[in-house]
Amino acid sequence: MIILGLILLVLGFLLSINILWTIGIILIVVGVILWILGATGRAVGGRKYWY
């Protein structure tokens, strides 16, 4: 999710499309939050591990 967010962020910047920029930022933030929760050993969405 973080990688997809970075790709959308770069594409939005290069192509000057604001919606891609916004979606990229949102995906990066959600990805980082899920990564931190998973790293602490906390169950996310009913699962302890996400593969």
Model description:
- The termini are close together.
- α1 (2-15) packs antiparallel against α2 (18-39).
- The protein is mainly alpha-helical and 51 residues long.
- It has 2 helices and no strands.
- The radius of gyration is 13 Å and the shape is elongated.
- It has one domain.
Keywords:
51 residues; mainly alpha
Note the topology:
Layout: H1 2-15, H2 18-39
Helix pairs in contact: 1-2
Order of helices and strands: HH
Number of helices: 2
Name the assembly state.
single chain
Number of domains: 1
In short:
The protein is mostly helical. It has one domain.
